[in-house]
Amino acid sequence: MATIQDVAKKAGLSRTTVSRVINEHPYVTEEKKRLVTQAMQELNYVPNSSARRLRRQQTETIAVYVPRITNPFFSHLVEVMEKEAAKKGYQLILCQTRYKKEQERNFLELLKTKQVDGLILTSIENDWSEFEPYLSFGPIVVCNEYSDSAQVPSVYLNQIEGSYLGTKHLIDQGYTKIGYCTGNHKSSRVSKDRKIGFLQALDDAGIMMKEEWFFYNAYSVQDGFAAFKKLSELDDKPQAVFTGSDEVAAGIAKAAFDAGWRVPDDLAIIGFDNQPLAALMDLTTVEQPIDTIAKQAMNLMVEAIQAKKPLSRKEVILPFQLIQRSST
C-alpha cells in the first residue's frame, strides 16, 4: 500500500508539499498540485480522510434530530437535507428522539464531544435552556419547530396561520361542528400554535368547541384509527375534523370508510403537510414546503459551521398553501 512518502518520491516533491496539497493548503502552485494528483493516481493512493478532518478540527458531519423517522414529513425533510449536505461536502447523522426529552438531551453530547460539527433540530421537547450551554461547542439550527428563546438561525412556518387557514376552509365549506386531532399539545410549540390558530378561526366565526371533540397524542395512521373510534362513539359527533398530519388524516379516512361512513358527507377531514399519502387518498391538506425548509436549514447550518463565530437569531419564515381535494 502506497504511503505519502511514496507519493512525494514519485512527484519529486517534499513530503510537506504533498501534505499541503492533500489538505488543500493555500499558496501551493498549480504545477505542484498537478504533480501530486498525478502521483496519487498512479500509485492508487487514497488520503486518510479521518486524519485530515482531525487536523482541520472538523468532522464534516451534521446531526439532525427527528422525532419519528417513519413519519413521511420527517423522512422527506431528511432526504432533502442529505442531498443538500452532500453537495457541500457534509454527511448526516440521524438522531431519532421519539419525542423523549432524555433522548434529546443525550444526543447533545455529540456536539460537546466534537463528533459532529453542528445540530439541526426539527423538533424540540426540552426548554431552550437545555440547549443553550451547548452553543459553545458548535452551531445549532432550528428547523420546523421554533422557540422565542432560541437566539440561533431558524427556518419555520407560522403554525397559527397554518391551522387557521385549514380550519377556516372547513368553516367556509359550511361545517360548524369541528373536531381537532393533534400530537404533543403540551411541550411542542408547533402543536401549541396550531391549537391557537384552530380556536381563533372558530372564535372569529362565532363557533363553539366541545372538549370531547379534542383528540390528543395522535401521530400515525394507527392513531388515526383510534381517533375515529373515539369520535364515532360520541353521542354528539363532529361533522369535520382538523388533523395535525396527513398520516393521522389518512387513518381517520380509512377507518371511516371501513365503518361505512362517507367522506366528506358524514365526516370531512383535513390533513397537514401535503405528503404523497394525502394525494393518494385525495385528502384536503395544508401544504408545508418541505424541500424549501430542508434546503434553507442546511444552508444556514453550513454557513454557521464555516463562519466559526457566535450565532445570532435569524428567522426564515415560509408560507403555507391550502390544497383542496375531495375529503372536504
UniProtKB/TrEMBL annotation:
**PROSITE patterns in alphabetical order:** HTH_LACI_2 (PS50932)
Domain HTH lacI-type: from-to ranges: 2-56
Q: What molecular functions are annotated in GO for this chain?
A: DNA binding
Q: Which InterPro entries does this chain map to?
A: HTH_LacI (IPR000843), Lambda_DNA-bd_dom_sf (IPR010982), Peripla_BP/Lac1_sug-bd_dom (IPR001761), Peripla_BP_I (IPR028082)
Key words of the record: DNA-binding, Transcription, Transcription regulation
Family annotation (PANTHER family)? LACI-RELATED TRANSCRIPTIONAL REPRESSOR, NTD BIOSYNTHESIS OPERON REGULATOR NTDR
**What is the official name of this protein in its record?**
LacI family DNA-binding transcriptional regulator
From which source organism is this entry? Fictibacillus norfolkensis
